[in-house]
Every structure is written in structure tokens, then in C-alpha cells.
Amino acid sequence: MAKKATEKKSLLEWHRQSGLSVQEFADALGVTIQTASNYLNGRNEPGVVRAVRMAEVLKIRVEDVDWSADPKALDLPLMPEGEGVTPERLAIARVWISKGKTKTEVAKVLGISRQKLYDYIS
């Protein structure tokens, strides 16, 4: 029987809460670890049947998943207000990159080119 959830969470958050490894999740779905990772990180969207199976594996309801949530936004500190690159903003940019944001995304938030970002973080 599925648990009644009180709030919507991303698939990645539900997965983390489940305690399953990515390999265990993949095995339960009958997919490769890469495919499971792609679902968890928002790179692939599951069809209805696969979404239902994911919910069953995670012991939640399909409606409990915020399918539009950006998994890359989880656990990221907020970028300080302002323009350009400051030591504080650069420190946050490094955290974002370490947690999976692309350098292109980070450079855009900082308002600089990707090449300029490479100059700062190298």
C-alpha cells in the first residue's frame, strides 16, 4: 500500500528519502543504472507506465512527485544578489558546479561568458 504524502517532492528527493541506491532503483525498474540516473536527474521523462512503476518502487503515489522540479536546484545555496563576479558569488558558483550545474548555466547566472568562468575557476 502506498504511503500518503503530504507534500510534493522531486523524484530525486523521493529517491533519496527511500534509501535505495541508484542500482537498486534501476534493478526494480528493469532499466540500466544510466537510465535510472537520467530519470532521477531530470534528463529523461518517464512515460505513464514507468512513472507508475517508479512510484510503486518508492512506495509513494504518482501524484506525490513534482515532475516539473529541477533536481539540479536541490541543496544549492542561493546566489548572492548583484552583478558580475565577487568572491562570494564565485564561491557559490563553485558549489553549484560541484553539485551538477553546468558551467554554461552558472556563467549565465553570473552574467559572464563560459570562457570567462573557466578563467575564474582555473
From TrEMBL:
Domain HTH cro/C1-type residue range list: 19-65
GO MF, one example? DNA binding
| This protein's UniProt keywords | DNA-binding
Q: Does the record bear DNA-binding in its keywords? A: yes
Q: Know the name of this protein?
A: DNA-binding XRE family transcriptional regulator
Q: Which species? A: Deinococcus humi
